[in-house]
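Support request, please re-run this one:
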Amino acid sequence: MDNELKYKIGITLIPGVGHVIAKTLISYCGSVEAVFKEKAKTLLKIPDIGPLTSESIINQSVLDRAEKEIEFIEKNDVTPLFYLDKAYPLRLKQCSDGPVMLYYKGNADLNTNRIIAIVGTRAATIYGKKLTEDLVNGLQPSGALIVSGLAYGIDVCSHKAAVDAGLPTLGVVAHGIDKLYPPDHYNLSRKMLENGGIITEFLSGAEPDRENFPKRNRIIAGLADAVVVVESKISGGAMITADIAFSYSREVMAFPGKVDDTASQGCNRLIQQNKAYLIRNAADVTEYLGWKDDKKQAKQQKELLFDLSPEEESIVNTIKGNDGPMYIDDIAISSKLAPGLLSSHLLTLEFAGVLKSLPGKMYSL
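Re-run finished. Output below.
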């Protein structure tokens, strides 16, 4: 186990230190371990760090709880993911309020090329359930990872449909990974571990308290390329997730419903406010996202490579060698191109259909 893990967990437990401030502390001090070994006078010079927070850092009392969590992690085959780890979800890493730590159990690739979040009301109608099943079945050829919150209604319907379709599916929960809420979904969660998994930012023992669900929703939004709202009232968790996704510059899509249908009022509102694309089926989703047939796309890219400049070919090979989406800063470091020149080449490659621009300033083939 990572020797610094207790510090990585510990920093999330410091009173008054949220995810944004924690990242600021690590940036100023150079490492998470250095935060706990820094002198008080230096800590007080860091933005948003006052005497009480500084004292909490120095006395290191949170590290005892962190060590207990490490025991749980080792005993239960949980994968801890620190926001600077390579395996940490890249899409979520680009969200300023993304969790410093995640706790994950499963086998899904959290940085796979295609991730769709499907959310909606807990009181799903027969129509909403059918839309969800048809959507997931239609996405089966894409191999997309299906993300949702394992709640009643549209959430659990999307997970079940993914399991049946052989697609990996990830449940984001609002409690410790030692629990499952609602407990009715325990058997489904076991199946999800075989092709997908369960993920949370909460330590073991954490209850599914009301305030945890909006926090959970931002993870769902940040993990995905697009968030699809199937059915939703005018307010609720699905609408919160959609608003967060919109603020993250993710694609938001919604199925329309009858104007007098309470279960579709939220979807209709998102479409009316131009926050969501109107979709009818999975084909609309893949078209909006530019997901083409892999074999056809690979052939086109191979043909286009002969017409690329040395700089453009270098960029393409860099992204290809990364085996997944790359953040623009990482491309700049690897290609050694000036920011202005790099942006120009990236735009050319995007217009040529060689690269695809993703939310969070990332690019993929």
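The chain has three domains: 1-75, 112-169+215-289, 294-364. Confidence is low (pLDDT under 50) at residues 295-303.
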